[in-house]
Amino acid sequence: MTVSSISTNRALHGVSYEIRGDLALRALELERQGFEITQLNIGNIGLFGYRTPETMRLAMIENLGLSEPYCHQKGIFPAREAVVMQQQNRGVMNVSADDVFMGNGVSELIELCLRGLLNEGDEVLVPSPDYPLWSASVVLNRARPVYYTCSPENGFEPDPEEIASLVGPRTRAIIVINPNNPTGAVYSEETLTAIARVAEQHGLVVFADEIYDQMLFDDAVHVPMATLVHDTLCVTLSGLSKVYRACGYRTGWAVFSGDRSTAAEYLHAVEMLASLRLCANVPGQWAVQTALGGYQSIRHLTAPGGRLHASRQAMVEGVAASPWLEVVPPRGAMYGFVRVKTEAFDAFDDQAFAMELLERQHVLVTPGSSFNVPYRDHFRITTLPGPEQYRRVFGRINDQLESMAS
């Protein structure tokens, strides 16, 4: 009997996630062989010694007895109400707990929200570079990502006029990632307002990925997209993973604001999809009210003298000291999107460089092309290691680039 291989969903043919792809798998193999790998490929803040605030851990522990049953498909009321209060404090007044969905991290909510919206052949405007889960989720729902440029020459900030020019008859939504992953750009209010007007003019849903909303440096100011979008639907996504250093809690939320008058069918679809997965992780939700209220410890970490500020500065200085590298200093988030000065090389490919760096120097980075850009001269690193570790890392990166250039 002839046995044929098991075929896969054809929608997966356009999907990749190199952050946890072949390079990460090879890094795991090397670790099993006894090598110590410096993992700069993923913003897993707990790996670098950052702890979830104790008050959040206690809130979760004290409510474990209430966490055994399923909760409502939208999430527990205290968590949703805490998100509402945060939105109101930021000037988003037309939301209630019914407009908030809790999820197993923002990742699940991205997929859930896009699945409820998209049909085959629809288009979604996506930043380039983007966080690749957005592109993957668009493709998995048989729609097409249409990329708008966030160029390094413009500080990785988008051009609203280009965005407007890309809107077509099948365009359904626009994605805004601010502060941005992978670049660390923080968009100006002027840019965000112009994008909001484009969305309102064409009736597009705005998906605002704001998971790094309080992770800001120096004079950067985050403007919530929901404060600018009024005459169309806005979906704000955030969670505990980054600002609150609780990646493993897998607790995120989506807030629906703006004009919901024509969105009843869509919101019903999102709730149905939320019901199909029964509910989000309950224990982590009990930490939300404590996290969003009171003292915000992230501000101490990102201020001058704080650990995140020092690490980000060490990354910027490490790049500046290298003859091979340059970077637009990140103003938010926890990444540097570093460019290799390829003029010094006969040929340069970011994927090949990342693999060589891993094999020879045991440093794991993410190739820039993984973030859906047309160029292959960038790589992303986290800004989580301390200054001393960064000095060692850049020594290895420079050694590798020198060996490739000679």
What does this structure look like?
- The protein is α/β, with parallel strands linked by helices and 406 residues long.
- The protein folds into 2 domains: 14-43 and 304-405, Aspartate Aminotransferase, domain 1, CATH 3.90.1150.10; 54-292, Aspartate Aminotransferase, domain 2, CATH 3.40.640.10.
- 36% of the residues lie in helices and 15% in strands.
- It has 14 helices and 13 strands.
- The protein has helices at 22-32, 54-62, 77-89, 105-117, 132-140, 160-166, 189-202, 264-276, 282-285, 288-292, 298-302, 307-320, 350-361, 387-405; strands at residues 38-39, 100-103, 123-128, 144-149, 171-177, 205-209, 233-239, 252-258, 325-327, 335-340, 363-364, 366-367, 378-382.
- It has a 7-stranded mixed sheet with strand order 2-8-7-6-5-3-4.
- β5, α7 (189-202) and β6 (205-209) form a beta-alpha-beta unit.
- α1 (22-32) runs parallel beside α13, α4 (105-117) packs parallel to α5 and α12 packs parallel to α14 (387-405).
- The chain is globular.
- The chain starts with 21 loop residues before the first helix and ends with a helix.
SSE topology sketch:
Elements: H1 22-32, E1 38-39, H2 54-62, H3 77-89, E2 100-103, H4 105-117, E3 123-128, H5 132-140, E4 144-149, H6 160-166, E5 171-177, H7 189-202, E6 205-209, E7 233-239, E8 252-258, H8 264-276, H9 282-285, H10 288-292, H11 298-302, H12 307-320, E9 325-327, E10 335-340, H13 350-361, E11 363-364, E12 366-367, E13 378-382, H14 387-405
Parallel strand pairs: 1-11, 3-4, 3-5, 5-6, 6-7
Antiparallel strand pairs: 2-8, 7-8, 9-10, 10-13, 12-13
Helix pairs in contact: 1-13, 4-5, 4-8, 6-7, 12-14, 13-14
